[in-house]
Design a protein that fits this description.
- The longest helix is centred in the last third of the chain and has 28 residues, at 74-101.
- This protein has a single domain, classed as Flagellar protein FliS (Four Helix Bundle (Hemerythrin (Met), subunit A)), CATH 1.20.120.
- By secondary structure, it is mainly alpha-helical.
- The chain is 76% helix and 0% strand.
Length: 130
């Protein structure tokens, strides 16, 4: 998988003069960070009774998960890729249920899974750099 992303293309408010492409792992980590942010927003929205914001945030989480699911290379990844795909399907289902039920505890469990996955990807990055 050859994913490159110029910071200018993603609308970064950071250093837009940077032109080197991001490593695919960096993109994955950014997506996981985004999911965490949107899940936290959704939890706050549920607690505040802001159902439109809840649905907006959860829709963004589902879109990110769909993108990650679509990028899985089952041939190269074997059983690990298959397991990750099943986990993404589970998370999409859970987030969709929360959009209907506003079940904060269910959303917190999904958030915990996503944080665990993000931390695992970070470890991959650390081992890549050493």
């Amino acid at each position: 998988m050859d994913i490159t992303l110029d910071l200018r293309e993603r609308g970064s408010t950071g250093d837009v003069s940077r032109e080197e492409p991001l490593h695919p792992l960096d993109i994955v980590l950014m997506l996981y960070d985004g999911m965490v942010e949107f899940l936290v927003r959704a939890i706050k929205a549920i607690n505040d009774g802001a159902m439109t914001e809840k649905s907006r945030s959860l829709s963004r989480v589902i879109a990110i998960i769909e993108g990650l699911y679509g990028s899985i290379d089952a041939e190269a990844g074997g059983q690990v890729a298959g397991n990750l795909g099943e986990l993404y399907c589970f998370l999409m289902k859970e987030v969709s249920i929360v959009d209907l039920t506003s079940d904060v505890e269910r959303l917190r469990r999904a958030l915990d899974i996503i944080i665990t996955l993000r931390d695992a990807w970070r470890e991959v990055g650390v081992s890549r750099e050493s």
